Amino acid sequence: MAGHYPKRVLFVYPGIAYIGYDSFERSLGGSDSDPIYGFTLLAGVIAEKGYTYEFVDLRQLKNEDELVQKLKQSDAPFAAITVQTPSFDIACRVASLAKSTGKITIAGGVHATVAPEDFEDNPAWDYVVLGEGEVAFGQLLDDLVNGKARNNVVPGEILNHLDDLPLPHLFREWDPCYRDSYAIEIARGCPGRCTYCVSGERKFYKKMRFRSPDHVLRELDHVYDRYRFRHLLFLDVCASTRPKFFTALLTKLLERYAHLDITTQDRVDSFNDEVAHLLSRFNNCMVWFGFESASPRILKFIGKHTTPEQGMRAAELCHKYNLDIGANVLIGIPTETNKEIQQTYDFIKSIKPKMLFCNILSPFPGTQIHHYCKDNGILPELDTHERYELRHVLEKGFIKGIDYERIRYWHWMFNRLIDLDSRAPWQRIKDGIRSHYLAYRLLKKLSL
Ligand code: SF4
Fold first, then answer.
1. 296 with 338: CB under 8 angstroms?
2. For the segment 264-304, what is each residue's pLDDT rounded down to a tens digit?
3. Measured in angstroms, how far is the CA atom of residue 115 from the centroid of ligand 1?
4. Which residues, including other chains, have CB under 8 Å from residue 20's CB and lie 6 or more apart?
5. CB-ligand 1 contact for 90 (6 Å cutoff)
């Protein structure tokens, strides 16, 4: 496929697995900050090369007819679609609609990276970019625009210096979110080897890299001047594994942004007194930890390499410095017993988290647990990739041999640990975004 094309890209976010079209309001504050942020980075990179872009979030469209209309209206020759495993089938549908309107389709994102073979044989896709795409995607576009032939599988390129990236270009469709909350990348990579996580296999982010505090601040100043957001979320999962970097960043941030509410994520084995103390100087702070389980056997099985004692120590530090705890829990793990879930429940109850997310294990492709399930014959035949979506697993089950009635009971029990009053300050962030979004929709309607 070669030809001279205009320098214009249509970015498409197809993350509507299990929630469907017209679901933006309902899904606010979900796990989508990551892929959308990734798009804004790509937009920044290609804008420097002279490209323009449009953005479509399927959750903001009423139905597929509206998508087709958008595709037809767009004069971009390239449709770049980010693909997470649960939305793979929807992404393929989007790609085939995009192709029917004459676009060149390019897949990227986690599923493209861990399962490129799913794209190679599928006529809906022209190119698939693996791993970190900023450099590779820009190069692919340049080559296509200049009529140079490329292989369909485009290997990504690990960015060694994150400070080389230009500022992200934010999408006006996400304005309602930015007005309340901004999610920012401060580092890439994770030293963990969790068996249920794609990063654990090191396919996606192989190497730890950090942005300099000045580079982070430049982005924040730029966005804050425009939106005056109240809440800042660090997208990285293990900031304090490099304590020097994180304390330098927090110290800098405190000079200008101590009035913000902060949400950060960390590992229990690296969280420490100095980081906790610095975080406590912001207006409010919630630290999310992947406690996952309080059973040493299960922690070993899932490759967490942490102990319940480390979890307890991290929680005590949070209480000492008045930081709110966000607890990630994982149940529905092969071989896990009722007694082990009870152990986790008692542990979580004792640390008094303000927020809690009870995940049911979904053995995503590209993880060690996926291979485990396959090798042990407990992975079911899949009719759709939506089966990997948490709500789907919760309602209909997934791994053979697991008693999901029992898992649903525990899921309900864990959720009961958090009372509405205790999560009120954090619920306000979602409510704020929601009201901005309703105002945005009204204005859009009036301007039509
Ligand atoms: S679950 Fe978290 S700590 Fe474990 S490998 Fe994935 S990102 Fe790293």
1. no
2. 999 999 999 999 999 999 999 999 999 999 999 999 999 99
3. 19
4. none
5. no
